[in-house]
Design a protein that fits this description.
The structure is a single chain. Helix 10 links the parallel strand 9 and strand 10. The chain has one domain: P-loop containing nucleotide triphosphate hydrolases (Rossmann fold), CATH 3.40.50.300. The protein contains 13 helices and ten strands. The radius of gyration is 18 Å and the shape is globular. It is an alpha/beta fold and about 300 residues long. The chain has an eight-stranded mixed beta sheet with strand order 5-6-4-7-3-8-9-10, sandwiched between helices. About 0% of the residues have low confidence. Helices cover about 40% and strands about 20% of the residues.
């Protein structure tokens, strides 16, 4: 079987039933309209992509959702909030001599705009991160209002962007709490695998605590099923269980597993640029349209 045939099989999840088409979530497929053009930019809506489990597609989703929104004319700022720096690498941004989010959090650099780096994708910028960020929690632990530092860092650039996407590290520590305190919404990428499912309830409980104590305005923008393999009973059963448990909080768009994602990461480019006609690229464009249609993004 060729790579193209394998990807097609993995991404398959649609079936005809009673003359209509059902998606992998078991719901009728919606044809999300092309987003309207914006007359101006800002203020930004901040969305944290969060899951305490690693390897569920947070960084891939941040990169490709950001690139898709940029294609639709939205000005997007991506925040690399993981010491591994995968978001920066995935967008081809060197970090060893750059001003990073760590410098802004500690206050050694106070001008947020000086840390912003344009990417190769028009309308998509990034504030990078590197391994230095791993020391941030230690340095911030004694700060006043330590959970609100990221919100203060982003305040000065809010009017320059339509969307700010925060790629969180796989933990529920102080950095993630900072992201949730700054955010208006949370997008939870969830790998279609049993052990990934187990932690979602804990994450939602954390979001509820942040809403109660730090950020009353935060909303759950949706749960995004990722790494879906329509050929396996396990993927189908996990997705069915997620929909059964979380209902309309589960987004209709499902991201399939494909070898194109690691290929694009090596190239330091979004899949929308690396393989613009691939089904996975269209899936992220569809995700962008769905979030806009749900009102999560202007």
């Amino acid at each position: 079987m060729t790579t193209q045939q394998e990807d097609s099989a993995v991404l398959t999840g649609f079936e005809n039933l009673g003359g209509g088409t059902l998606g992998p979530t078991g719901r009728p497929v919606t044809d999300f309209a092309e987003p309207r053009k914006l007359k101006g930019h800002g203020p930004a809506r901040i969305i944290a992509l969060c899951n305490q489990k690693g390897g569920v597609g947070k960084t891939t989703s941040t990169i490709n959702l950001g690139a898709s929104l940029a294609e639709y004319g939205r000005r997007v700022l991506a925040i690399d909030f993981d010491p591994q720096g995968a978001l920066s690498a995935g967008l081809g941004v060197p970090t060893h001599e750059a001003t990073t989010i760590y410098d802004l959090l500690l206050g050694t650099v106070r001008d947020t705009s000086s840390a912003i780096i344009p990417t190769a994708v028009p309308n998509l910028d990034i504030i990078p991160a590197n391994i230095d960020l791993s020391a941030a929690e230690v340095h911030l632990v004694n700060e006043v209002a330590r959970e609100q530092i990221l919100a203060r860092v982003l305040r000065s650039v809010m009017n320059d962007y339509d969307v700010i996407l925060i790629d969180c590290q796989p933990s529920l520590g102080l950095l993630t709490v900072n992201a949730l305190t700054a955010a208006h919404g949370v997008l939870i990428p969830l790998e279609c695998e049993f052990f990934a499912l187990r932690g979602v309830a804990l994450l939602i409980e954390t979001i509820d605590k942040v809403r109660d104590r730090l950020n009353p305005a935060i909303e759950l923008d949706g749960i995004l099923a990722t790494m879906y393999d329509g050929r396996t009973l396990h993927s189908r059963e996990v997705l069915e269980r997620v929909v059964s448990q979380f209902g309309d909080d589960v987004l209709e768009t499902v991201i399939g597993r494909t070898v194109k994602f690691p290929d694009a990461s090596v190239a330091g480019a979004p899949i929308t640029s690396f393989a613009p006609d691939h089904q996975a690229a269209e899936a992220y464009r569809r995700l962008a349209r769905e979030l806009i249609s749900r009102g999560a993004i202007a």
